[in-house]
Design brief:
Blueprint (H helix, E strand, L loop, with lengths): L6 E5 L3 H12 L3 E5 L12 E4 L1 H9 L3 H8 L5 E5 L5 E5 L2 H9 L4 E4 H11 L6 E2 L4 E6 L4 E5 L4 E4 L1 E4 L6 H13 L13 E12 L8 E7 L2 E6 L5 E15 L8 H10 L4 E3 L2 E2 H6 L1 E13 L4 E2 L2 E3 L5 E2 L6 H23 L7 H33 L4 H10 L5 H12 L32 H27 L2 H11 L16 H18 L4 H13 L1 H12 L11 H11 L1 H15 L8 H4 L3 H23 L5 H11 L2 H23 L13 H28 L6 H5 L11 H33 L7 H14 L1 H17 L2 H6 L1
Parallel strand pairs: 1-2, 1-11, 2-7, 4-13, 11-20
Antiparallel strand pairs: 3-6, 4-5, 8-9, 9-10, 12-15, 12-18, 13-14, 14-15, 16-17, 18-21, 19-20
Helix pairs in contact: 1-5, 1-9, 2-9, 9-10, 13-19, 13-26, 14-15, 14-26, 15-22, 15-26, 16-24, 16-26, 17-18, 17-21, 17-24, 17-28, 18-19, 18-23, 19-26, 21-22, 21-23, 21-24, 24-28, 26-27, 26-28, 27-28
Length: 812
């Protein structure tokens, strides 16, 4: 609560104005609302759409239940229609997913209804004055004074203009600024307000064919319709039309009722649905208004003790429904900083400099977000008006097939950064996505560190290429390999098998790979066999995790969605060379905060449940068979050949097992397949990381202990770290020993960097409090104690749980 006398003059009993008044009242801050019209909530024919970012604040203010009661029908689905009213795309689960993710659905009601709800919630209604049109404003050293048309004057500490796009407060603020500091306001701003579209918006009653809980967007060339259902038998509608050019400032037209009716006649027979025309809406209207749709975010929202909020500072196209919601957000941001400023104030009241500092913080916090909303709304309106041939092609051939995950990701970027009231408790609405102000910190971009990571991965991949392939040429390994294949023998007694698939190109490739691994699998050197077993156990978690990431929904449109291709590449060219490239692609895909959101994290439960069995059957079993001391050489080579595409087998088996499990589930519940738990995948993923991590850790610990107890017989350093990669080798086995050393070394470097980046990413997006320094220490310890593969699995286990939002769930 405020501890010092302080009064806020609010001009305009708008959504922004009354929201701010209620917020101030909740914090014990004095206010006066001056409304130019004689009524607080006149019916002007306007509806308003409320979205999670606005509803969350209204919930804090105790208005949410009243809003829900008035709205009656939350939006359940959105439908996109063509010029004949035929649906070509829809999101049937829009309302349920929005509520599950963000805690609130989308609501439509009369603007009048929302204003009445806000007014009714204000206890001090005597502080709200009607028929008080502001005429002049004067800043003073420690106060600001307003004179109204009735001749009355009101004095307060600050004045807030919530009086719309044609704001009197903004005009007076500019006059004050020009009088005191002419450079404060950019003179070009007077004609910067732009309008490309105009709109007839209205409310109709008794309209059949508009499903309750639906929003219909009807796309046409250079005009469009938005038709949401309303409470009772109301239907809201917007006919948006391109003005033909973008006009500015005083050139923005204002329309008469006659012009409205003329435009309505031009569109009289437009289809809204196949059975509903625009004429049906217009003939049954109770209210309508024809107006231009200006859009702009002003450069200066304040001067000294004067500030504008809502449409007076940022105005958008109505197509995304963010006008009223953003007005509520800005009011909340102002309240937060004002309460904080009053709490920190050591004098009797805030000085003008302190007031300006508060206003500046509000604009800094809100300006970039409002600019982004403006651009999004303009782009959306251009799309719905099919302004170009490319947009028409996109709407017809691309838009209906865009994965829904992309839509949910875009909504994440709209809703999650939203402001709320810091001093009021967050309502306990069940949701899976945390808002940014509920996290440990506000998500930030990687900045220059992200680009540095890209460069480091390129360096690691380049170094790996040199150590694996250039060194193999220099030290003679590849010549020895070619000699073995040319002579068709490994030794005097063991010939090279030439046929596996009857396909010459594939057989030639398999001969090369089998020759490489046969020499290692059958080596008489215990050190070399141990090295290979350790190496293959270390990459086991990678095989599993690459598969997991390939089946994750958020990666479907990225390079990570093809784990079989990555598996083929690292079997052919070495994990040490391919892993840095894979992690580079992964680093690029995960650069945005939405990548780490709890809902984008999820896998299908049926996929997650079968990955471990697929890894066991497709990778672990073939790997173990390759080590079996089978005497018959041709059979041993065949087993090693079968092992080569093991990572691909894992992916194929995952698809097969998943399909079979879905069929079995549906057969067991023949009437309806059971819906999946939103985090039903997590226990299966836990098991994947635990099993593969433990196997890898056991090999690492056993090898370390074996080297310790063996004395000088086996050296861990000599086994894993090459002394000279370019020195000539005596035989193929020695060359391959060095190859696997470098392969392991480069893979370990790539894993270390990726684990560190993952730890830091979760810190920078606010999901974790583990800093990069603590993460670095933990990784060094993990690599030493349990090895790179097990450390990778451990980090992924921890990362998975962090991304489920468990910490967030405990805080709300």
């Amino acid at each position: 609560m405020a501890s010092k006398p302080f009064k806020v003059l609010i001009v305009g009993a708008s959504v922004a104005g009354l929201s701010l008044a209620l917020m101030l009242e909740k914090n014990g801050i004095e206010f006066v609302v001056l409304e130019a019209y004689p009524d607080i909530a006149p019916q002007i024919g306007a509806s308003i759409g409320l979205l999670p970012n606005g509803l969350r604040i209204l919930d804090q203010l105790g208005c949410y239940d009243a809003v829900m009661e008035k709205a009656e029908f939350p939006v359940t689905e959105t439908v996109f229609r063509d010029s004949r009213g035929r649906p070509f795309a829809s999101i049937k689960d829009f309302g349920s997913v929005l509520t599950e993710r963000h805690g609130y659905a989308m609501l439509f009601l009369d603007r009048q209804m929302l204003i009445q709800i806000l007014y009714s919630a204000i206890q001090g209604k005597s502080k709200v004055f009607t028929s008080e049109r502001v005429v002049t404003i004067r800043n003073k050293d420690s106060s600001v004074t307003v004179t109204t048309k009735s001749g009355k004057t009101y004095t307060g500490d600050i004045i807030i203009g919530a009086d719309g796009i044609h704001s009197t407060v903004r005009k007076q603020m500019w006059l004050e600024a020009n009088r005191v500091d002419p450079k404060w306001i950019d003179p070009s701003e007077e004609n910067s307000l732009a309008a490309t579209y105009a709109c007839i918006f209205g409310i109709s009653e008794g309209i059949p064919g508009i499903k309750k809980g639906s929003v219909n967007s009807v796309l046409n060339e250079h005009f469009s319709y938005i038709v949401p259902s309303g409470p009772g038998d109301k239907t809201y509608w917007f006919l948006v039309k391109n003005l033909g050019k973008t006009v500015y400032g005083t050139d923005i037209p204002r329309f008469t009722k006659e012009e409205e009716e003329n435009l309505a006649q031009q569109h009289w027979n437009d289809y809204v649905t196949p059975t509903l025309r625009f004429s049906d809406l217009y003939k049954h209207k109770t209210n309508s208004v024809y107006t231009s749709l200006p859009e702009y975010v002003y450069k200066r929202w304040y001067f000294q003790r004067i500030m504008t909020i809502g449409d007076a500072s940022h105005k958008f196209e109505p197509v995304t429904g963010q006008g009223g919601n953003s007005a509520i957000e800005t009011a909340a941001a102002l309240t937060n900083h004002l309460v904080s400023g009053l709490g920190e104030c050591t004098s009797a009241s805030l000085t003008t400099k302190e007031v300006e500092s508060i206003f500046q913080k509000v604009q800094v916090q809100r300006e970039a977000r409002t600019q982004s909303i403006l651009k999004d709304a303009h782009a959306r309106q251009r799309f719905e008006c099919l302004e170009t041939w490319s947009l028409r092609v996109f709407a017809r051939y691309v838009f209906p097939y865009i994965p829904k995950q992309m839509l949910w990701d875009s909504l994440y970027n709209i809703f999650c950064p939203a402001v709320s009231l810091r001093m009021l408790p967050q309502p306990k609405r069940q949701r899976s996505e945390p808002y940014f102000d509920e996290l440990f910190r506000t998500p930030s971009s990687r900045g220059w560190i992200g680009y540095s990571v890209y460069v480091l991965y390129v360096i690691v991949a380049t170094r790996a290429y040199r150590l694996l392939f250039v060194a193999g040429i220099k030290n003679g390994t590849w010549n020895l390999l070619h000699d073995a294949m040319r002579k068709d023998i490994f030794t005097m007694d063991i010939p090279v098998r030439r046929s596996y698939t009857q396909n010459e190109r594939i057989d030639r490739m398999l001969q090369s790979l089998v020759t490489v691994f046969f020499a290692a699998f059958t080596s008489s050197s215990d050190e070399q066999v141990l090295q290979l077993a350790y190496f293959l156990s270390a990459i086991l978690p990678l095989v599993a995790i690459f598969t997991v990431e390939g089946f994750r929904n958020r990666n479907k449109w990225s390079l990570l969605s093809v784990p079989s291709i990555w598996g083929l590449l690292y079997q052919l060219h070495g994990i040490g060379f391919i892993a840095p490239i894979y992690f580079l692609a992964s680093a690029f895909s995960s650069r945005h905060a939405v990548y780490f959101s709890p809902t984008s994290r999820r896998l299908s439960t049926s996929d997650a449940a079968v990955i471990l069995p697929a890894v066991i059957v497709g990778y672990i079993v073939p790997t173990l068979l390759s080590f079996f001391p089978i005497r018959e050489a041709y059979s041993r080579q065949l087993i090693i050949a079968i092992w080569q595409p093991a990572p691909i087998f894992v992916v194929i088996l995952t698809h097969i097992f998943s399909r079979l499990s879905k069929i079995a589930a549906c057969l067991q519940n023949s009437e309806k397949c059971i819906p999946q738990n939103i985090n039903g995948d997590i226990r299966h993923l836990d098991l994947i990381y635990q099993v593969t991590g433990i196997i890898s850790a056991c090999f690492h610990i056993a090898l370390v202990l074996g080297c310790v107890v063996s004395g000088n017989n086996i050296s861990l350093v000599q086994m894993l770290l090459p002394r000279s990669s370019f020195a000539p080798v005596a035989n193929l086995a020695d060359g391959l020993f060095i190859f696997f050393q470098n392969d392991y070394l480069m893979a370990a470097a790539a894993i270390f960097l990726w684990c560190w980046l993952s730890i830091w990413d979760l810190y920078r997006v606010g999901l974790s409090n583990v800093s990069w320094k603590r993460g670095l220490v933990a990784l060094v310890a993990g690599f030493a104690l349990i090895g790179p593969g097990a450390t990778f699995a451990t980090v992924w286990y921890w990362r998975e749980h962090i991304m489920t939002g468990e910490n967030f769930a405990r805080r709300i």
